[in-house]
């Protein structure tokens, strides 16, 4: 599969061959959906928690004797029917929402989403990104110029895939809304689908192949 390789000014350098085992895979939407649901479930944090009667402080002594008072019998002031008592069937932090997903399924769905970006013309291949400083202004200008040259609204939502950590690029991007950087060995389906455009640095292809293609 052929793709255009651009520099950061948006000028086409040459045509390059992309590995078909990564960028030419037919989309299976059911598999991608299954992987997305699993990833979202596994990242879910359980915060809501209510105490049942055993977790409430106090209530060890019987409020009044069993018989002879004319009142209903009670064994604890921390009963759910008492004010200040425990909660019945309330949410607890012990809930587990994690889902198991096979490694090959995750890898397959990831390669399918990468392929879909090329087929939908939402993919940009760059030779490199060089910034003199890790400044938001420089990165914003580069993205705007690149988008104008390629006639793509990259400011709308873009994921930049790096082969390794680059602090200049990471610092320059973090204050730009809807623009995110990620290392090639940390790619995941959810991040790719959450961004409309994908900017991939040329040397990241080798990392993707070594990490996800077995």
Characterization of the model:
- By secondary structure, the protein is an alpha/beta fold.
- It folds into two domains: 158 residues, Ribosomal protein L4/L1 (Ribosomal Protein L4, Chain: A, 3-Layer(aba) Sandwich), CATH 3.40.1370.10; 49 residues, no CATH class.
- Helices cover 34% and strands 14% of the residues.
- The chain has seven helices and six strands.
- A six-stranded mixed sheet has the order 2-1-3-6-4-5.
- Strand 1 and strand 2 form a beta hairpin.
- Helix 4 crosses helix 5.
- It starts with a strand and ends with a helix.
- The model has no long low-confidence stretch (mean pLDDT 92).
Q: What is the CATH C level class of the largest domain, in words?
A: Alpha Beta
Specify the oligomeric state: single chain
Number of helices: 7
Q: Please identify the structural class as seen in this structure.
A: alpha/beta
Residue share in β-strands? 5-15%
Secondary-structure element pattern, one letter each: EEHHHEHEHEHEH
Largest sheet: 6 strands, mixed
Question: Which fold does the CATH topology of the largest domain refer to?
Answer: Ribosomal Protein L4, Chain: A
Question: Rg to the nearest angstrom?
Answer: 27 Å
Low-confidence stretches: none
User: Going by CATH, what is the homologous superfamily of the largest domain?
Assistant: Ribosomal protein L4/L1
Distance between the termini: 20 Å
Using the alpha-carbon principal axes, give the shape: elongated
> What is the spatial order of strands in the main beta sheet?
2-1-3-6-4-5
Mean pLDDT: 92
Q: What is the β-strand count?
A: 6
């Amino acid at each position: 599969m052929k793709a255009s390789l651009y520099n950061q000014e948006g000028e086409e350098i040459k045509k390059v061959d992309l590995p078909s085992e990564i960028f030419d895979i037919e989309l299976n939407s059911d598999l991608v959906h299954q992987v997305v649901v699993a990833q979202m479930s596994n990242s879910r944090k359980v915060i809501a928690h209510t105490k049942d009667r055993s977790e409430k402080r106090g209530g060890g002594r019987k409020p009044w004797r069993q018989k002879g008072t004319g009142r209903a019998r009670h064994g604890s002031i921390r009963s759910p029917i008492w004010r200040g008592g425990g909660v019945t069937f309330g949410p607890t932090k012990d809930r587990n929402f994690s889902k198991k997903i096979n490694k090959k399924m995750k890898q397959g769905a990831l390669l399918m989403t990468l392929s879909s970006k090329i087929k939908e013309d939402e993919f940009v291949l760059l030779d490199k990104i060089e910034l003199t400083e890790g400044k938001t202004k420089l990165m914003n200008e580069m993205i705007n110029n690149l988008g104008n040259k390629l006639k793509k609204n990259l400011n709308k939502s873009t994921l930049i895939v790096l082969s390794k950590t680059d602090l200049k690029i990471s610092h320059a991007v973090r204050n730009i809304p809807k623009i995110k950087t990620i290392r090639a060995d940390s790619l995941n389906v959810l991040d790719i689908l959450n961004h409309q455009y994908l900017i991939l640095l040329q040397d990241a292809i080798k990392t993707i192949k070594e990490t996800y293609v077995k």
